[in-house]
Specification:
SH3 type barrels, OB fold (Dihydrolipoamide Acetyltransferase, E2P), 6-stranded antiparallel sheet, flat
Length: 188
């Protein structure tokens, strides 16, 4: 058991029969009335976000979660992704809705799978913050059109479509932010 004083970003709690992660929190002490904690929570099973207000000092149930290193092997059909634990070599199939950004997964990519320790079930699969991908197709940039931050569409090796600056050409390696699905920089 913990209280609202123990809140921090990334803390996993059990509430209403689900496991939630604290995305943001704010302790509020109004001039009149009791203090409270305003939070933004993310459901680890389906990714849905919820804003919830807790009275200050209320007891909360902590969820026992564990992050385990896995490596992406292959995709089966439309919705199952297969991973291998990097230490025990045990294989695991995860549904697409549990993966944070499945369009940027490439074979051999390292990921972290978050497990609920009590039930031994996977809750979510998170990619690293940045991945390096090769550009497989993009339209050529127009020479001289550099006055603004103009972007163009580019397909990467995983099949995802990313918006990139005009100077990016086919065959180049780029770094993509997996949290926002945006171009970060060119890899040299």
């Amino acid at each position: 058991m913990a209280t609202t004083a123990d809140f921090r970003n990334g803390l996993c709690i059990e509430m209403n029969g689900d496991v939630w992660s604290v995305v943001e929190f704010l302790h509020v002490k109004p001039g009149k009335g009791a203090a409270f904690v305003r939070t933004k929570l993310r459901n680890l099973r389906n990714g849905r976000q919820l804003e919830h207000t807790f009275p200050s000092g209320v007891k909360i149930d902590l969820a026992r979660v564990e992050r385990r290193p896995y490596q992406f092997l292959y995709k089966e059909g439309q919705s199952f992704y297969h991973f291998m634990h990097t230490e025990t070599f045990e294989q695991l199939a995860i549904e697409e809705n549990l993966i944070s950004n499945p369009g940027l997964l490439k074979e051999g990519q390292g990921v972290e799978v978050m497990y609920h320790v009590d039930t031994e079930t996977p809750l979510s699969c998170e990619l690293p913050a940045f991945v390096e991908l090769s550009v497989t197709y993009t339209e050529p940039g127009v020479k001289g059109d550099t006055a603004t931050n103009t972007l163009k569409r580019a397909n990467v090796e995983t099949g995802a479509e990313i918006m990139v600056p005009l100077f990016i050409e086919e065959g180049e390696k780029i770094k993509v932010d997996t949290r926002t699905n945006r171009y970060a920089e060119r890899v040299k």
